Records
---
Amino acid sequence: MDDVVVRMLESVPLKDPVLVEGLPGVGNVGKLAADYLRDQLEAKPLATFYSKFFPPQVYVSEAGLIRLVSNDLCYRKARRAGERDILILGGDYQGISPEGQYELTHRVLEVAHKHGVREVFTLAGFAQGHVVETPRVLGAATSAARVEAMKKLGVVFSRNDPGGGLIGASGLFLGLGRLFDMEGVCLMGETSGYFVDPRSAEAVLKVLAKALGIELDFTDLESKAKEIDRIAQKIHEAEAKAPDSPAQTREDLGYIG
Amino acid sequence: MDDVVVRMLESVPLKDPVLVEGLPGVGNVGKLAADYLRDQLEAKPLATFYSKFFPPQVYVSEAGLIRLVSNDLCYRKARRAGERDILILGGDYQGISPEGQYELTHRVLEVAHKHGVREVFTLAGFAQGHVVETPRVLGAATSAARVEAMKKLGVVFSRNDPGGGLIGASGLFLGLGRLFDMEGVCLMGETSGYFVDPRSAEAVLKVLAKALGIELDFTDLESKAKEIDRIAQKIHEAEAKAPDSPAQTREDLGYIG
Amino acid sequence: MDDVVVRMLESVPLKDPVLVEGLPGVGNVGKLAADYLRDQLEAKPLATFYSKFFPPQVYVSEAGLIRLVSNDLCYRKARRAGERDILILGGDYQGISPEGQYELTHRVLEVAHKHGVREVFTLAGFAQGHVVETPRVLGAATSAARVEAMKKLGVVFSRNDPGGGLIGASGLFLGLGRLFDMEGVCLMGETSGYFVDPRSAEAVLKVLAKALGIELDFTDLESKAKEIDRIAQKIHEAEAKAPDSPAQTREDLGYIG
Amino acid sequence: MDDVVVRMLESVPLKDPVLVEGLPGVGNVGKLAADYLRDQLEAKPLATFYSKFFPPQVYVSEAGLIRLVSNDLCYRKARRAGERDILILGGDYQGISPEGQYELTHRVLEVAHKHGVREVFTLAGFAQGHVVETPRVLGAATSAARVEAMKKLGVVFSRNDPGGGLIGASGLFLGLGRLFDMEGVCLMGETSGYFVDPRSAEAVLKVLAKALGIELDFTDLESKAKEIDRIAQKIHEAEAKAPDSPAQTREDLGYIG
């Protein structure tokens, strides 16, 4: 079996497309953002990536149907002047080993490269360890010009954050992307790190929308954020009553989103 | 050394065979069922799979003879109208790493594909965490039609179970099977998860027998179930007397079956 | 880099040679025996195996010279009627992962096969968990004829030992050896499992010497056994005085041999 | 993706160059020394090694620019009679698995071999477990002649240290180097093992400078050593006041250098 099995679902010519990556991670910010972007833009499936670097797992839908875990590349062609063709990478998992991270990222970049990608945006969460009321968006980039361009969109480039660098797909897509002569930016929404965080995903997407010249309706994401707020509030109240055993409830929360 | 070494033991033409998989796992339900099916149908060895994704281990028989751990594919040709040719995969281990799970499953599916397999039944246990008097059989499938067909045989498709999907060979044979254009069903017998569970294996096999139009004699499996009951009863009594140290006894029980 | 790098040190024709394997393991019995055999027979280096499946380690001699960890195959041609050509595999480590165990064993067997090996003796310790005054030699074999032949040499084939089979090189050389049409026997010297055990190695070698029709002088091995006895005695006395902290001394003992 | 991706940055003919390796490890002695040597000699980038055997990580500079973790080979041509061309290998990580250690070392040695390297110096720390006021330099080598030559430069070849051999890149470059017919020496600066240790790096570099006939200015390294001394002193005082919780401060110290 190939390390990564790529199933091309469609053959479509793209014009200078930008690649947007958002996979599960801190606060699930990247995945929430990428999935929401895909839904809002009505992006269509282009390729599916199966791999032995994912867990040996299938998901079962409510209807009882199985689906092998994967990463998925969707595309959305520009619809009006000022827009660009977009590729969106989402999925169930990042590679579950360092080797897997490299192989999967490299394979996706190969496919993106063949479709003409020269620019990458990666979306992620940045764990602050405390509740963040109004999440800022931190950035890292492959060139000084991009740092400046992102600063104009409100992205914060902090001297100390992220101190130890970025670990995982969002950093690697930029790092390995350089081997494909791609430039790019990582957008990291601040988040507590304890919950899935739609509000942080929204902050990230707002920057991305400006950068890509697209318009997004955030109604659904804001509903989801309020739902999380309600549950967090409940947990808060439960903890006030019984401060010793909030663990279970908190874990439940992890599955929402 | 090849990752997986396939030893073909016989060359036999099969007609639209169905593949039945049952490897060690929760309650050993899948393995118990597959081994019992093989014995009852007097299935014959077709291929042996050795692999570096198994432990570096040989078993020693009571006569002092060694045997390298393996997975084993047996076949049984249809004997009367209404029956189908059957391939049964059993063995000592599932692959001991995610990569191994994918590689082994893929390799077995290749061999099955060459023999014309288009349909797969995977057999497994579903851990409920408590004693199950009358195990139900839960299901997951690759198509809505199969879900409906299985419901008619009494299989339960629960909205919430299995919540996190299936991990291991029984899910993977269906998930990767799709890459070989195979359809299939996973049959999961409810079990406590604490013992090997012949009764759950029997429940699973009864559904399978109906689905395949074959008849099975369950006498031996029921004897084994009663043996486990006796031991469980003894443990229960021992625990009643000395509730603090049942661990050793319980572990002993794990080897029965 | 190849997974296993084989350095052939000599080209020598061998006549129906028998392969004897003894690598580090329980009580270091196998390694002690194989190294002693090599020294007694004045066997000469034939091939060195380096591998990424060993630790990334060099040993430093007392003179300050480094040596990369390896497995080593030596040979000794028959010197008189009744003797056979012998290949001896020893070394610093077994493969440090299941995959490594398979790859290394397979690679050594390939080299052995090219030199005409059809029979393998593997030497190992069998941990009893308590002090063994007069170690028996337990056996496992690839054929009933070999079981019978070994019984005549005093080897014990126990119905229950080893219960869970053999894990590691000594089992794998026989298990994978079958893929090369080799037959063989595993000789396991009983040992406590707490110390390196020259006395157990001697028991194993005495059986092997009879099986191969060679004569060995055990003086040096018996000296080593007595040295271990003295140290064990000291530990015993130290424990009698200060029963709570024997760990350090015992660990020291582990390096002797 | 190749296991190791080599980016050649320049094509330069070298004359009998010596390879100096210093990667992160005990007390960061090797990396401190190699980086300092590179800066002092104004060595220029020759090749970059990316690999799936490194963590999937990018570093972010204070300016917000990302850089994929790597090993880096620099060169410095001889500037006057008596000097030699030098290659220096430094980097962010050693391979993060035994397999990775072997593959990366082998790949670097291949590149070095193509550039004519026949001699290797590896730089490392040797953990003594206690504060070392005046670090000695311990040695290990590939030949008796080199042991003698190093002794004349003050290197200590101890009968017992390092007892268990060398684990990691510094040993492996010599061990695998033998497969490329390279000779070499490992220079290990004594260090406590608790801090990054510029003073130990200086001791190692002083030996190396003599061996290579080059002159180095140690001012900057001594400043760094004094900075560490000041921090160590602060920790000492803090521990004197609150002896129970020095862990955090000590960890902070680990990042200095």
---
Amino acid sequence: MSGDVNHQIKLAARPVGLPKRTDWQFTETRVPEPREGEVLTRVLYLSLDPAMRGWMNEGKSYIAPVGIGDVMRAGGIGEVVASNHPGFAVGDCVSGGFGIQEYAALDGAQLTKINPKVAPLPTFLNTLGMPGMTAYFGLLDVGLPAAGDTVVVSGAAGAVGATVGQIAKIKGCRAIGIAGGAAKCRYIVDDLGFDAAIDYKAEDVRKSLRAHCPNGVNVYFDNVGGDILDTVLAQLARHARVVVCGAISQYNNTTPIKGPSNYLSLLVNRARMEGMVVFDYASRYPQAIRDMADWIGEGKLKSREDIVEGLQIFPEALLKLFSGENFGKLVLKIADA
Amino acid sequence: MSGDVNHQIKLAARPVGLPKRTDWQFTETRVPEPREGEVLTRVLYLSLDPAMRGWMNEGKSYIAPVGIGDVMRAGGIGEVVASNHPGFAVGDCVSGGFGIQEYAALDGAQLTKINPKVAPLPTFLNTLGMPGMTAYFGLLDVGLPAAGDTVVVSGAAGAVGATVGQIAKIKGCRAIGIAGGAAKCRYIVDDLGFDAAIDYKAEDVRKSLRAHCPNGVNVYFDNVGGDILDTVLAQLARHARVVVCGAISQYNNTTPIKGPSNYLSLLVNRARMEGMVVFDYASRYPQAIRDMADWIGEGKLKSREDIVEGLQIFPEALLKLFSGENFGKLVLKIADA
């Protein structure tokens, strides 16, 4: 390994609006030697997530921004190629925060061993990874769905949204998904078992919501913000819970974020809007992963990955998230297993 | 009584922006005879509240709008002058939803007897009435303040806000009030015991909040909405609770309500924004009134009323709420006790 080249992508500039190719720096370095306690991993798959856009901005958030000149932060799956940590052996499959690069030497304490027999590797970046954990804890701990509730989720064909709707069904709720385009809408109803889908690109979301949610929305899991958030707020049921998970429609704004004009619906309906960050639930990931793996095994929880290949296309691949072009969890394949 | 004139003010038109005099109709009718089960009350004081503006609008809200041609809805205090209900006798003091008029015949079940020895009558429209109940349940049940928390309240010299800050102090919190003008700011600190006041008309609210809340805002009780809500959202502490009680800055908008651009602070800080409507707590008013009366007796809870006199000036008096001209709970005196 030593002597091999490690290709990396670093953040070169803080983007204004959508990240441009010039916001990135393509570099190469030597594959590092793992130090005492470290594990050298060959990266196989990297997770591309809407949250990455926020990490590129300066300023206070739930996590420190990526520094200019730093390898872009990214979670991934890889194979151990050298280990100076007693918990890991060559050939182990691991997940960790490798960054957009081909090799990473990290402290073993920062890695999690995964069992490739449980599911295909990309699934560990989807239902069994951060998106799955976000859906699980966001819906169950913040959304507090009760059997019979109507649960609406936006970005419903995305990694988080697709899982939210399926968990809602598992918990005895009605699941209504908002997604862009007929193919995604068909997918969440026909393949994932949502009760209905609303195509925000083709339908009047307000009218469709009223039709599909005659008794109002008990839980709204928001991944998108903007006009869709506002529209759903106007349809809340009494004591509704709005889970603020993300706002992908607003991340590339060059103007201020659009606040929800209909927020006084919270007052009228004695409803609640609450934010969540998945990392807070880290101590409970093992239980969630057991539940999710069981549901996958029972055929109740399906996942779909949109796998694009090659480290060098990272800048363009990332943009698929913001155009809505990806279909399923967006994963960047770096190397063959 | 019978044969006497009952002056009334009815809603003549749905206002656009601030209510104009032509939105009201001044009428007179005969004082009604109480029917079986009814009580005829001579109205002494009426409560003027920001929420009245919402009741004048068409459309779904937490309460039906006042109909065009109906006597304007208002709560008040009065004296029983005739009773066909076994629970009430001539001379009793009662509170109820009398409307903007001099006499009202209501079913006894809609009235509450009050004891004028406990406090001056206008106090029953303030700390011992709806504003007090709103402050009590909004802060304690929705805001969930813990001793040591920093509690910020807007409209802090108003009927609800002044009580919120004082209850926060009683519960061992730091209380920071946002109010308009030096006199109101002095009042809430010097007379009511708030820890600090921010004069939004004279200060940079953001800078002052940062100075007074170095560890962030744990509870924000919002009566005003608009820019102040946005500014406080940016200063939330982890797991903060934002109580949405009102949005007086937005009630007379002729453009859409300004949504809070900084709502993603809820995500970053794992915080919650929740609406409340005081009527939901009706079954627990007696306990709250006992607590509040005790605190008044112990000198821990003070109230101030801004009393204006004469049914005919109702239209102009109401506008004082929106200009911020009133100082303390705005009460319209209709007649001498």
